[in-house]
Amino acid sequence: AAADAAADARAVFRRGPKASNAPARAHDVPSSSQNHHHHLYSLRDKVPSTLARHARAWSSARGTSSANIPVAVWRPHARRAEVIRARGRVFHRFGCARGASTWLFPEECAFLVETERLALVYDETDESVVSVRGVYALMAREGINMDEYLTYAKLCRLGFAVRRFGASWTMDARESDWTLADGRGRWATQREDVLCVDTREAKRRRIDVESASASANVDASRAASAARRREATSRHWWPWSGAVEHAWLGPEIEKGVMVACETDDDGLAPVNLAPTFTVYQPNKNFSKKAPDDASFYVYASSAKPLTGRQSQALLDCAGGKPVRVSTCRQSTVVMFTIAAPKVY
User: What letter does residue 138 receive in the DSSP assignment?
Assistant: First the structure.
């Protein structure tokens, strides 16, 4: 019975383009010797046997042998899990290589636990592993929302290698500051600059650099405003705009358009928005020491649509690569691509 259930499980849960055409086992199909008067396998006979086969498959014992599952221990000081027992090639596109060890982010732990490729514990002496619900709670404590995880998991299931934006695949074993490998944008850890808190000279240098940077930003913004004003005075926004005979395109409307074009956006707060994940094409020979070029970037969006300035900020961070914006509704991940070099 156990062997039959295992055979049913392999047939029902098989993957690939022919997954829906899994053949029935021999004793599920009436033979010609048993039913001489039946020449066709009727639908009335097929439905019960199919349901029985699926019931046996779903009731069979699933999972990998405990001896073949990698084990990781959660390290609160690093906000990562350290792999203490590796098996197979599970981690060739998961985790950060720090010396001879591999360290996993919470979303990586969740995906590997969910797909039964990792056993996570909070301490080496624990006899029970963290459940899927427990690893979801761990993600929530680390500030990772479910929309971000669902986006990450969908891309991993499609075969892509996915990494936090700006996070490195390798790390020096002698480095003690884990925040340096957290990533950029949404993943950047807010911390004090330890190089500028001890001496007044260092503070003065930092202030000088910030002042120079602010002055450069102001000069660039003023130059952009001047360019907009020159462009606005060189052409009309509509061929007949400003004409007295057009009440709805007359001087008052034209004046309002010119004022809008001449308005300086120095008062607008800068848009600090970066992609959420970097995505690499599937590659069985993927190397953490020499990773492939990024295929595209993904931004896990909230319920509020992106503005033009936010979309442009994402494209600027992507450096010419496409950016896909994902939204999640009832655990369904939908993505659309921003590929234009200039949207704002």
Answer: H
